[in-house]
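Side project, low priority. Logging it here so it doesn't get lost.
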Amino acid sequence: MSSRHATPRPAGVPPMPGRNLKALREAIAVHAPRLLADFDRHWKRDIADTYDLTPVPAFMARWWAEYALARDPRLDARVSDLEDRAAEADDVAEARALLEQAAHLRREAGQTEPGQ
């Protein structure tokens, strides 16, 4: 395990579930229920209704990162703040820097391992 992933989970933040769709959906339902309708709608639209499993890895990656952020209110608020500030920035370079910070935090969240 790299040191990047060894960062202790903040108190009160639930661990990441097993890396499978059922466990992820259950974790979202319990710890981030505000995401559940979008998760289900996305699944139905892009996978279930198309009878195509090809996009499942991309679906899983997206929702893994979304849940990793949502389960940690402080991290979620930080990313939202960066994105909001970028939307309001008058300077393109400033907006780009803020979005890069937000994207970095999203990537890091998406790399969180089960149990962390």
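Brief comment: The longest helix spans residues 92-110.
Revisit when time allows.
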